[in-house]
TrEMBL record:
It comes from the Bacteria. The lineage of its organism: Bacteria, Pseudomonadati, Bacteroidota, Flavobacteriia, Flavobacteriales. This is Acetylglutamate kinase. It comes from Flavobacterium rhamnosiphilum.
Length: 178
């Protein structure tokens, strides 16, 4: 779970850099970030089934597409478009939270929404600092996003373990997924 979500923030960062700094490789970075959403959806399929994994992938891909709208509107200084994209982004985050909490009663909706909202705020700050060319703040913002996503991935993993304890061994004999 940590690897998948670290990939999420890493490739999101890469896309932010590509979009804001107009770097080559933007299409490839976006493609990789979108593949990460498929990977996350696939990771829950053994627990929640094919349909649930596909639904999460769909919601997460929407999350990425809306995030690009947020970054582009912020970079253009278009407040109306930014507010519209942000509203849509937060609605998508709520939809993801509700979907996950319906699948797993071990995740509290209030906590999931708070975690998702924190993720959006931190990611927005990361993009804004990059747009402002405040590179010191940009680095700090990325570190905060990275730390938050590790908390979120742990919350997700712990919820899965609590819901499906029979699928996980306890003790020192756990095998690495690598």
């Amino acid at each position: 779970m940590r690897k998948l979500w670290e990939d999420h923030v890493t490739w999101t960062r890469n896309v932010i850099l590509c979009l804001v700094d107009e770097l080559p490789g933007t299409d490839q970075a976006i493609k990789r970030l979108l593949q990460n959403q498929v990977d996350i959806g696939n990771a829950i399929k053994p627990f929640y089934g094919e349909a649930a994994g596909n639904k999460l992938t769909k919601l997460l891909k929407e999350h990425i597409i809306i995030a690009a709208d947020v970054v582009n509107a912020a970079e253009a200084g278009n407040t109306v478009a930014l507010n519209k994209a942000n509203k849509k982004w937060y609605a998508n985050a709520d939809e993801i939270s509700e979907f996950l909490c319906k699948a797993n009663p071990k995740w509290a909706l209030k906590d999931m929404k708070m975690m998702m909202n924190d993720h959006l705020k931190l990611t927005t700050n990361e993009a804004v600092q990059r747009i402002k060319k405040n590179y010191d703040a940009d680095v700090i913002a990325y570190d905060k996003v990275h730390n938050e996503i590790l908390e979120m991935s742990d919350m997700l993993a712990n919820g899965i373990i609590k819901q499906f304890p029979e699928k996980f061994k306890t003790g020192g004999n756990m095998k690495s997924s690598r």
